[in-house]
Amino acid sequence: MPLPKGVHRVRRTLASGPSRYHFYAWRGGPKFWIDIVREPKDPDFHLAFAEAFKRPSPKKLMAPDLVDLFLDSAARAKAPRSFADQKKWLLRFADYFRTAPAVIFEVRGSRGELNKWRALWKHSPKQHDMAGSHAVRLLNWAVEEGHISEHHCHRLSKLYDVDRSEVVWTSKDREAINALAPEWVRRILCVACETGLRPGDLIKLTRGSVEETPLGRRLRVRTNKRGQVAHIPITQVLADVIDATPDDQLLILTNARGGQLTEHRASEGLRQWRDKTGLSQDLRLQDCRGTAATRLLNAGLSLSQIASHMGWSLRHAAHVIEHYARVSPDESDAVLVKLSEAKRGGA
């Protein structure tokens, strides 16, 4: 059976294995099929073509339509929090470019227009850069799906450039919090420093996360951001917190009333007591990860395992651990020795 009229076929040779053919509803149109044969006989091929042909053509497709298609696609963010952020920024994008056809982004001058939109948040470098990141992800997807043939918004310049690798909670900082803060805040800080988990993962920890091992116990956690399973050794300090959790309480961390925490409340609760104890305002809940990296090295994890768990490069993980060991007076030289051995051993 011949190809439907107008179908655009592109042959792509892979580094290994047979060539694959990518089929588009029309030249520059949406991709609807991938196969190893030039003329697919599968009935679903024609069904997919018919469905793709219903989509608006590039000339009719407007920027808001592009956003709607993306947010309804499998390429959108999976985690609820990430999707909410993505949707917020892309709806702002759709509103700003509401009268622009999607093909405008094939023109070189569109890069300047996108920068004008990002400049609406120039007062906040982090938001400025986030706006661009979401827009570029949308445009990359649009090219991949054949809605536009190309775009000129790659590698946008960034305003937000901060290195927090040297912002860590030292033992002295933790002692200051533990001396004044209520138990629910002390527990948050302890678990964060012992595990290195992000706030979104901390608030989900339950007794069911604890697993027995031949040498003790560990936490098994599927992380929100990367969707990967992390196995975290339970140190004695962390074990004390887990074992002190009331028998009728499933969650390991709760708010002041014993209810479920939110990410915001966990971060805000620690921030409030940080300020009351007079600690540096640079310290945040996320900065407990540097402390945790050191703990995990001491617990026997390799540098590569720590980097993978934290989502860091090996170099960054080593830098954070080295800095923590040097600024924490109670850390022995053994930490630096272990770090040196880890580097020599190829992590």
UniProtKB/TrEMBL annotation:
The signal sequence is none
Which top-rank group of organisms is this from?
Bacteria
Show the Gene3D superfamilies listed in the entry.
Intergrase catalytic core
Quote the InterPro entries the UniProt record gives. Answer: DNA_brk_join_enz, Integrase-like_cat_sf, Integrase_catalytic, Tyrosine_recombinase_XerCD
**Entry-linked Pfam families:** Phage_integrase
Tyr recombinase domain: residues covered:
155-337
What name does this protein carry?
Integrase
Q: Which residues form a coiled coil?
A: none
**Keywords recorded for this protein, A-Z:** DNA integration, DNA recombination
